[in-house]
Amino acid sequence: MSVREIPMIIDGQAVPSQSSEWRDVINPATQQVVARVPFCTLEEVDRAVASAHQAFATWRKVPLAKRMRIMLKLQALIREHTPELAALITEEHGKTLPDAEGEVGRGLEVVEHACSITSLQLGELAENAANEVDVYTLNQPLGVGAGITAFNFPIMLPCFMFPLAIATGNTFVLKPSEQDPSSTLRLVELALEAGVPAGVLNVVHGGPDVANHLCEHPDIKAMSFIGSTHVGTQLYRRASESGKRAQAMMGAKNHCVVMPDANRSQAINNLLGSAFGAAGQRCMANSVVVLVGQAREWLEDIVEGARNMKVGPGTDREADLGPLVSPAAKDRVEGLIAKGEQEGARLLVDGRGCQVEGYPDGNFVGPTLFAGVTADMSIYREEVFGPVLCVVEVDTLDEAIAFVNANPNGNGTSIFTNSGWVARRFESDIDVGQVGINVPIPVPVAYFSFTGSRASKLGDLGPNGKQAISFWTQTKTVTARWFEPENVSSGINSTISLG
């Protein structure tokens, strides 16, 4: 099998990097090298930014309707190439093909939303706000934007960034994860095929040096990041100190509260899927289940369900979860499992030592379940980012709400109940950005904004929806009065009154 060499995209062309530093991209089910990705030089990053900066002068003036038609073409191409994109995700990330296809679909939602740009970017008008004075606003693009994405959603996360950024008239430089870049690069190629002009959308690769350079580059006006809290906090600070608009969607510790009146089988199936799907490598994974009252009696069913889940390569459509993305990720997760035992949690299902026939070198960790978990334990405090579910037991809804709100993160939470009163109380009192009611992973549809909170988010505007339009544009307010040609001035007005 030939090994792909991942190029940059600069000025509409695939450009090979001249960097001396390259990393192998590994199939996590086999450890086979499938691609090589460069860590671009800073001079190459500057070339990409310069291309975007130059393209902005003309792209910002392209009519909204033409930008809309490009987005319409892109969504059609993504639909057509969904199997190809999903296969690339599975090959480099490891998630199952059905899960990868679902990811492409969620990214497609954002592109479909961007197709409405002709109505999304409208300003406001007040006619005759004063005597023959009209006041109106223009929502204009910022300039060059930058996006830095994590490995866990190599299609969806870039779609959270560049479609709306370029649809609003900005140009863009994207740095995807070096762990699984091929599907992201193919997505950008489809955007160019859809008619995105040269220089409007560029791709560079690399590690911290490239990310820091993008955050500090004077020609970049806005930075969007999705990834870990540690990295996101540093990049947000760098970008902000460099005078950029910035948003950072970061780590999480999501909770699923199960009330005793919930539909038992539905609740259990949903919480298991949300905890262990994609091998737990989701920032919205429900890694903690809070069993309330008599729902504690369901623990044996949860354990049985976890034991019966199938682990396999992502190409096996019957598998519930695939491998972790790398040997390092596997070692970290297994280390945290060991730590959970050491700190006193009851290990009811142990996914370590998971063997998949025909794939002896895969980074497999099976579903793992701990009971008796307390808030001071490492498996609760840290984002495991693996197939590990912590079970917490409380007596009342009040205790459950207090427990969730005491966690510093606020990305997502869900509740399973058949009581409208309980659901409304939960959504009102819970201090978390995204809430699911009988929905295990409450990532909103793309025409609503992604609204994580507290330690899970920096910046007041999130991706997608109306907030993304605000993030990628700046408001210009115009106050205008037009005099009749023969109008005679009534004299000097030295006040601030419009009159």
TrEMBL record:
The keyword Hydrolase does not apply. This is methylmalonate-semialdehyde dehydrogenase (CoA acylating). The lineage of its organism: Bacteria, Pseudomonadati, Pseudomonadota, Gammaproteobacteria, Oceanospirillales. It is an enzyme of class 1 (oxidoreductase). Keywords: NAD, Oxidoreductase. Pfam families: Aldedh. Residues 16-478 form the Aldehyde dehydrogenase domain. Belongs to the aldehyde dehydrogenase family.
